[in-house]
Design a protein that fits this description.
alpha+beta; five-stranded mixed beta sheet; five-stranded antiparallel beta sheet; elongated
């Protein structure tokens, strides 16, 4: 890359296009690196605070990447005229421009989830994923094969005066140096891309998730709860969960799990697993929305409404907020008391008639359908009534305290 071109003035048309091309390539490189970091579960667990500002960098780079395209659009007609006899180059322009516009538009929607409905956000995430995993390998391959060092690699140095003719025999088909090197570059790009795509593909294939459960240790809760209600959706839930955690996934059994209700209450309550199963449960049909853009619709949750547990403990007059703590020992969240007493806030133990899995926050998790899922605390072990607002794990790291989902219209 010629860095001097960024600082030169009065450039000819071809040089201006080159500068735009280089600018776009640099921005796309930053977007690619930050995007791959954001989908990394291990990075989320190891550097959760860092992930938030990397997300901000990714969003702002996406917004800034609009500028090269805006500068290019007035020049596109003239550029295509210069390529009128180079069909492959014209097709490449259309493909790259289409990929970039798709990524930018869907990315902007995902950057401001509160401004759109969950259905729009979910579709934008799917489109963004497809554009990423189809477009990223193509643009990487395009960047490699158009680079100066790659072009130099294609040129086989021949000592002066010693050039020998190439003999091609039918029994030994010949593959030229240029074709061979391009095949190698394309093959390596495809292999790396397929490895990275595996995690994304898995999130859309529930059967893969079922197989993965056999490869990890599950919670050992005895006895398993029997459903007290029928599944409320005739067609079952729509969509698949993506599983995130900020720590090692904890494992529970009857020996190390209990649920306490404490703080500003008249009577502190503590439930063992057996005692918790003896409580009368309710069922509700609700949707589950993640702030990263995906949703699962028509989920039947079975558990105890939070307001019933709080009323059993007795709410003191100075209680203003409810704090929730995860059994991972790290994650906390909170809700204002008036929101926590809503009918659909539930301490759930079953999902669609089955015990909530370990990776999905079981044996017991909080469900907050009108809020994004970072309020729905996994591995719930403590509920505490307090008189001051508590700043939860992700809110402390830049997420919105409100977390209310925009209603579908």
């Amino acid at each position: 890359m010629n860095w001097k071109i960024f600082f030169q003035r009065n450039l000819k048309f071809a040089k201006k296009l080159t500068r735009l091309h280089h600018s776009n390539a640099l921005l796309f490189l930053v977007l690619s690196i930050t995007g791959l970091i954001l989908v990394s579960a291990s990075f989320r667990s190891t550097f959760p605070a860092t992930r938030v500002w990397i997300k901000d960098v990714h969003v702002w780079m996406g917004i800034i990447s609009i500028l090269p395209i805006l500068f290019y659009l007035p020049k596109i007609k003239k550029h295509l005229l210069t390529l009128r006899k180079r069909k492959k180059h014209r097709i490449n322009v259309y493909l790259v421009l289409g990929i970039l516009l798709t990524l930018i538009i869907s990315g902007l929607i995902l950057s401001f989830p509160a401004t759109v409905t969950p259905l729009v956000s979910s579709n934008a995430l799917l489109i963004h994923d497809i554009a990423t995993w189809v477009g990223l390998p193509y643009i990487i391959y395009h960047s490699i094969t158009r680079s100066l060092w790659f072009k130099n690699l294609l040129q086989k140095p021949t000592p002066e005066g010693k050039e020998e003719p190439i003999i091609i025999e039918k029994s030994n088909p010949f593959v030229g140096r240029r074709t061979f090197v391009k095949f190698v570059a394309g093959g390596l790009t495809a292999i790396i891309s397929l490895v990275l795509m595996g995690k994304w593909i898995q999130s859309y294939l529930p059967s893969w998730g079922d197989v993965s459960k056999t490869l990890t240790k599950e919670n050992d809760m005895k006895p398993l709860p029997s459903p007290q209600h029928q599944i409320l959706s005739a067609d079952g839930r729509q969509g698949s969960f993506r599983f995130y955690t900020v720590t090692e996934t904890p494992t529970f059994s009857n020996d190390n799990w209990s649920l306490s209700i404490e703080g500003l209450v008249d009577k502190k309550l503590n439930y063992t697993w057996q005692q918790f199963l003896e409580l009368n449960r309710s069922a509700q049909l609700s949707d589950f929305h993640c702030v990263t853009g995906w949703s699962v619709y028509d989920v039947t949750w079975e558990g105890i409404p939070l307001k019933e547990l709080l009323n059993k403990a007795g709410i003191q007059s100075d209680a203003m907020f409810v704090k929730f703590s995860s059994g991972d020992g790290v994650y906390t969240e909170s809700l204002p008391l008036n929101q926590a007493l809503a009918d659909d806030i539930m301490v759930a133990v079953l999902i669609d008639g089955e015990l909530i899995s370990q990776e999905n926050g079981g044996p017991v998790r909080l469900i907050t359908p009108k809020h994004y899922a970072y309020k729905s605390v996994k591995w719930l072990t403590k509920i505490e009534l307090i008189d001051q607002e508590h700043i939860g794990y992700w809110v402390k790291r830049g997420y919105d305290q409100n977390a209310l989902v925009k209603k579908s219209t």
